Amino acid sequence: MFSKKLEYRSLPNIRDLGGMRTKDGRQIAPGKLIRCGHLSGLSGRELSDLADLVGVVIDFRSDGERSENPDAQIADAIYYHNPVVESLTPGVSREASADRHAIEQLLFKPEEARQYMIEMYRALTGDYATAKYASFIRILQKGHKKALLWHCTAGKDRAGVASVIVEELLGVPREVIIADYLKTNEYLREELLRLTTFVKQKAGTDSPLADKSLRYLFGADEDFINAYYDAVAERYGGMDGMFSKGLGLSDRDIEKFQKMYLC
Q: Which helix (H) or strand (E) holds 232?
């Protein structure tokens, strides 16, 4: 059972984790944990609907991303700015200048683009990113009457890893976690096609190398999330070690977290 895609025209990658089954037969409670991309450009109706659903918003984007595409304000929601990367990170942070740099350097080098993204996912296990994910989990530990929503720009990398951490804490099988992570490619297919077409037209190219590079830079890939898991294993000995050493969670903390979000 995958996360449930919610129907918002302006948010093609918004999903409720509710319904995802755990290894012990429980499931994540619906209407509590939501992931998505940035919240700019929402219609009035979408904002009204989200106000009924969401009580907390956690924004993983950089200052530059937030300035370029400010979140629409959901009525009465509490907002947290929790940037997961420290600086411009082409392919991960999505400031216009970062995207331009990635395209200039990697447009015709798909294997280098792939390796670049692998290294970026590995970097999400570093001290800075892990501290930010620890802050994210502490916010979730507080709970709220309405759903907690987290997002980056596309809802793919930083929000994707946040979702992996939450799903691992709640006991979702890893094969399901990875398959759900890859659903981003399905939900953002039209956006990726639009972006690829625009970039190729601007660069004056129809090279298949450009298609492949852009899929790596702006899509989800199993190699990326496996690189994150591999780096966690190297750094912490596995997810359990990351929970205790990286996120500072005790077994009791994890048990309470599961009681909050499982049914």
A: helix 222-236
Taking the C-alpha atoms of residue 126 and residue 227, their distance in angstroms, rounded to an integer, is 13
CATH fold, domain 4-261, is: Protein-Tyrosine Phosphatase; Chain A (3.90.190)
**Distance between CA atoms of 189 and 2, rounded to whole angstroms?**
18
Indicate if the pLDDT at residue 94 is higher than 50: no
Q: Identify the bridge partners of residue 149 per DSSP, sorted by sequence position.
A: 34, 57
Q: How far is CA 70 from CA 48, 152, 241, in A?
A: 18, 12, 36
Is the pLDDT assigned to residue 234 strictly greater than 70?
Answer: yes
3-state secondary structure of 237: coil
* Nearest-angstrom CA–CA distance, 177 and 171: 10
pLDDT at residue number 72: 95
Q: Which residues contact 201 (CB under 8 A, 6 or more apart)?
A: none
- Going from N- to C-terminal start, the domains of the chain cover 4-261
Give yes or no for residue 242 having a pLDDT over 60. yes
Name which of 239, 241, 88 is nearest 178 in CA terms.
Answer: 239
Choice between 249 and 63, residue whose per-residue pLDDT is larger:
249
- pTM comes to 0.94
